[in-house]
Amino acid sequence: xxxxxDPASATIVIVTFNRSALLGRALASIGTMDPKPGxxxxxxxxxxxxxxxxxxxxxxxxxxxxVYRRLExxxxxxxxxxxxxxxxxxxxxxxxxxxxxxxxxxxxxxxxMGAWAPKFRHIQGRRYDYDGSEFYWQYRVxxxxxxxxxxxxxxxxxxxxxxxxxxxxxxxxxxxxxVKELGLPDPRFFIYWDDTIYGYLASRxxxxxxxxxxxxxxxxxxxxxxxxxxxxxxxxxxxxYYIMRNRGIMAHYYRAHGDYRPLxxxxxxxxxxxxxxxxxxxxxxxxxxxxxxxxWRGMRDGFALASDKSFEIMAPLAD
Length: 319
Prior knowledge:
The chain has two domains: 7-221, Spore Coat Polysaccharide Biosynthesis Protein SpsA, Chain A (Alpha-Beta Complex), CATH 3.90.550; 228-306, no CATH class. It has helices spanning 20-31, 51-58, 76-90, 109-114, 176-182, 194-203, 237-245, 247-256, 262-283, 289-306; strands at residues 10-16, 39-44, 65-70, 95-100, 103-105, 122-128, 141-142, 147-148, 161-163, 172-175, 208-218, 224-227, 230-233. It is α/β, with parallel strands linked by helices. The strands form three sheets. Strands 1, 2, 3, 4, 5, 6, 9, 10 and 11 form a nine-stranded mixed beta sheet that branches. The chain has a two-stranded antiparallel ribbon with strand order 7-8. Strands 12-13 form a two-stranded antiparallel ribbon. Helix content is 37%, strand content 20%.
């Protein structure tokens, strides 16, 4: 791309569920931004707490227009980001910046992201972890295995960026032209692998990059296994189910684009299953019948999904 970046053309999309205190911190951080985005879209996944009141109270403090959209049911992160991207697109946003409710935006975050906007259409910034340490995100995925590559270099060279073939909805900065080409994120994932696949699709269309710019700070402490530069975070039984089940959806996307290798993908599925057992044993320090059972149930349902010949991937957006 070659046009200059206008901050007012950007929309921040925050997806939230039942975490009004964290959402309040995210909205307050937008008030400190310079420059500010043209809009903030808050997608509420039918939170049972006081989220509507928090949005109403803090919206004036952001210093920009806040669009609040409450969904009728909890559609998970995947459904929330799909609805958020749709809302931002309909607002006419040129740039859409996606994030969860458990981060704060650094004051110069939009300026830092915008500096790369004339060159790329899909940009991922960096973020600090809860304790202020540098968070490492696995930005490269083996398409044949369908799993992140854990030894992708963490450092940056003089270019200030590394090309990626994945995505992360905690910080994805994407241009509307690319959203139009790809269509909306697939809400059927509910949680997990949705952003991975969306980033994979984007990388087939245009160079996608993670840049050496810290723009977000995580505000929620997560139990993790510290392995130096890399960390293994605690999860939940629900996540474990969808981690395995959604590989069936992934298979359809890889198959549609000629990247599905059944044997290699099966090895990747086995590796994912093993990783979740390690997470249970070394991070959460518990291997329960429910946790183990959700992995098996998710893998079973994933096989059924992968075999569903009626499944259709998301279509590009119409004008």
